[in-house]
Automatic annotation (TrEMBL):
Pfam families (UniProt xref): SBP_bac_1 (PF01547)
SUPFAM superfamilies in the record: Periplasmic binding protein-like II
Lineage summary: Bacteria, Bacillati, Actinomycetota, Actinomycetes, Micrococcales
UniProt signal peptide: 1-21
Gene3D superfamilies, per database record: Periplasmic binding protein-like II
Keyword Transport set for record: yes
Name of this chain's protein: Sugar ABC transporter substrate-binding protein
Protein's organism: Brachybacterium vulturis
UniProt key word Methyltransferase: no
Ranges where the record places region Disordered: 27-48
């Protein structure tokens, strides 16, 4: 499936504009420009003493909760502040109900920005520049992270962990034996590797979108990845925030580009029918059969939890990973698509500010990093604390990114991001609707 770049040298001018625009995206906001509440003055320590206890509500439990609490033990001992964490699997509804009833936790950890924006718009969340050193925080974070928490000029959350989605995984030994080379510099080079793998009689890619009612979310990630690479972060932001229509020519073009890859003859194991019917958690499994039935899978860092147990036990020797490459003629830089838990403040006092300062710093998370399954959003985090070499590789990929952008479907209205976009991806992959038709329908159904 060799790609001729000249056909897609579309936005070199727009991409250059996007690169220039990146320098002004994350300036310290004006305190007078506050969503839902007018001017908010800078908090001064001592203005409101704490109670000695800080309550936190989050969405994660189990081993993640254990690692989170372990990362807070030294802080609690040194500060004298007791932290009470409550996990809730129905976090999105619970935080809205509690905040609306005047019973919000002191701090909430939002797994997606959408619900945070709703409550921030109602004036229930304190902008972070009121109590954190915004410029210092921004200087250590992966570029673009704070912009994912921005509403009407103010930033309402700061990340305390990160998910990195822009990763391509491969079975290290079989890949090296096949002679498929080092990590490709561009998607066009990756297409050449795809052709080489296919010529060797192996399916280049494995993919799975099955997720019960959420089937299709993996497809939205593909579109988002290509939007970032072909058209750059600035146009990506315009698309996600509906400053350009969902059916803009650039978006339709990206659908066609993704279709060239996923729908191309022999590119994906089992073809499009298999993509829909395969659970996303099972997509990596063919890579680790003997011999492999596929060589590549695109998925976030969390996918390692679905690898076979023997592979997980020897990850550094068995698994290879590199960043999804850039697009030749597109954005001049390595973008990373991902997500993360955003810490937000409902109760402003000395104790809650101290907890927020720690949670959102590059000093938080050492114990969680050693336990595994966690990534710091800070470029300055001590990467030697990660439990495996492959985790350090992923952290380095994220740290070196020119721009980080939050999963677009998580930023769109729920009716789109978890509705018409998911549904449209399935109809598009099955060939029931064209790229233009799907984009038109999503645009026509965008909430007023």
């Amino acid at each position: 499936m060799a790609r001729r770049p000249s056909r897609r040298m579309v936005m070199s001018g727009a991409a250059a504009t996007a690169a220039l625009g990146m320098t002004g995206c994350l300036q310290n906001p004006d305190p007078a420009d506050s969503a839902g509440g007018g001017t908010v003055e800078r908090y001064t320590p001592g203005d409101t003493p704490g109670t000695g206890t800080v309550t936190i509500l989050g969405a994660f439990g189990g081993q993640e909760m254990d690692a989170f609490l372990a990362s807070l033990e030294d802080f609690q001992s040194e500060s004298g502040i007791t932290i009470q964490y409550t996990p809730d699997s129905d976090f999105t509804n619970t935080i809205r109900q509690r905040a609306g009833a005047g019973d919000a936790p002191d701090i909430a950890l939002f797994p997606q920005p959408g619900g945070m924006f709703d409550l921030a718009g109602e004036g229930l969340i304190t902008p972070i520049d009121v109590f954190l050193d915004y410029d210092q925080l921004n200087s250590t974070l992966i570029p673009g992270f704070l912009d994912s928490a921005r509403l009407e000029g103010r930033v309402f959350g700061a990340p305390m962990r990160m998910a990195c989605k822009s990763l391509i995984w491969f079975p290290k030994k079989a890949y090296e034996e096949g002679g498929y080379g080092d990590k490709p510099a561009t998607m066009q080079e990756l297409y050449e590797i795809t052709d080489q793998i296919k010529a060797d009689g192996i399916a280049p890619w494995s993919d799975g979108w099955g997720a019960d009612q959420a089937t299709g979310w993996v497809g939205t990630d593909w579109i988002e990845e290509f939007m970032l690479r072909v058209h750059g972060p600035v146009l990506y932001d315009d698309w996600v925030k509906h400053r350009i229509p969902f059916n803009a020519p650039e978006v339709v073009e990206v659908f066609d580009l993704v279709g060239d890859l996923l729908k191309g003859e022999g590119n994906v194991l089992g073809g499009t029918d298999a993509i829909i019917s395969t659970p996303f958690s099972e997509a990596p499994l063919p890579l680790f059969e003997d011999p492999p039935r596929a060589m590549l899978v695109r998925q976030g860092n969390f996918v390692t939890g679905f690898f076979p147990e023997d592979i997980q036990a020897n990850m550094d020797a068995e698994v290879g990973v590199y960043a999804m490459p850039t697009w030749e003629g597109g954005f001049d830089g390595q973008p990373i698509l991902g997500g993360g838990d955003l810490a937000t403040l409902f109760t402003l006092n000395d104790d809650t500010v101290k907890v927020m300062e720690f949670l959102t710093s590059d000093q938080f998370g050492g114990e969680w990093a050693e336990a595994g399954g966690w990534l710091s959003p800070h470029r300055t985090f001590d990467q030697s604390l990660y439990s495996s070499e492959i985790t350090r590789q992923i952290a380095e990929i994220a740290s070196e990114a020119a721009a980080f952008r939050y999963d677009g479907s998580d930023l769109m209205p729920t009716a789109v991001g978890a509705g018409s976009f998911w549904k449209g991806m399935v109809e598009w992959l099955q060939g029931a609707k064209t790229s233009q038709q799907v984009c038109d329908e999503i645009e026509n159904g965008w909430p007023a």
